[in-house]
Write a structure and sequence with these properties.
globular, 5-stranded antiparallel β-sheet, apoplast, Jelly Rolls, RmlC_Cupin_sf, Germin-like protein
Length: 213
């Protein structure tokens, strides 16, 4: 009985002790300092303003006059310092007719996409048995893409499409598979060996995407 009472009393004492770790409401990123694995260092509170918590860029149509006919406008911690340390961020996706965001991954976070205009065919590939999950999404539809998995978005209609995406990280990262393989100086012989493509195909893709070697 004494032991039970002692444990109960000790628990109450622990709960009543003030925490030595200061509770911090937010950590607005100081973009003048380099970003580390845990994000940006916190801006001094005296220098924080309401503008650090507001981002207006997602109301502007992205420039889709490029190779993939798509534009992603990020509101990550580098553009929107108010989300630094909060585990969230957003972006806008514009897809012109025939636009595509090729197979890519976000190593730092999961993604939720909501279509607000047009039709988007979207999907991802699981790491277990390479199962493919894809669907044609219309206005108001939402799809989730688990962290780190290869996924894509394609304009599935005859009009421009717009979507807004949210991430479970203030800096989810981005790696587009095609650009990782063919837009750098990775020697063609290595690309051919690791992708089973022949030399002519690799050279053609490198020429289109600006790679060398």
């Amino acid at each position: 009985m004494f032991h039970i009472f002692f444990l109960f009393f000790f628990s109450l004492q622990l709960l009543s002790f003030p925490s030595h770790a200061a509770v911090q409401d937010f950590c607005v990123g100081d973009l003048s300092l380099p970003e580390g694995p845990a994000g940006y260092s916190c801006k001094k509170p005296a220098k924080v303003t309401v503008n650090d918590f507001v981002f207006s860029g997602l109301g502007v149509t992205g420039n889709t006059s490029n190779l993939i006919k798509a534009a992603v406008t990020p509101a990550f911690s580098a553009q929107f310092p108010g989300v630094n340390g909060l585990g969230i961020s957003m972006a806008r996706l514009d897809l012109a007719v025939d636009g595509v965001v090729p197979l890519h991954t976000h190593p730092g976070g999961s993604e939720v996409l909501v279509v607000v205009e047009g039709t988007i065919c979207a999907g991802f590939i699981s790491s277990s048995a390479n199962l493919v999950y894809f669907k044609s999404l219309k206005k108001g539809d939402i799809m989730v893409f688990p962290q780190g998995l290869l996924h894509f978005q394609i304009n599935g209609g005859g009009t421009p499409a717009i979507a807004f995406v949210s991430f479970s990280s203030p800096s989810p990262g981005l790696q587009i598979t095609a650009f990782a393989l063919f837009a750098n100086n990775l020697p063609s012989a290595l690309v051919e060996k690791t992708t089973f493509l022949d030399d002519a195909q690799v050279k053609k893709l490198k020429a289109v995407l600006g790679g060398t070697g």
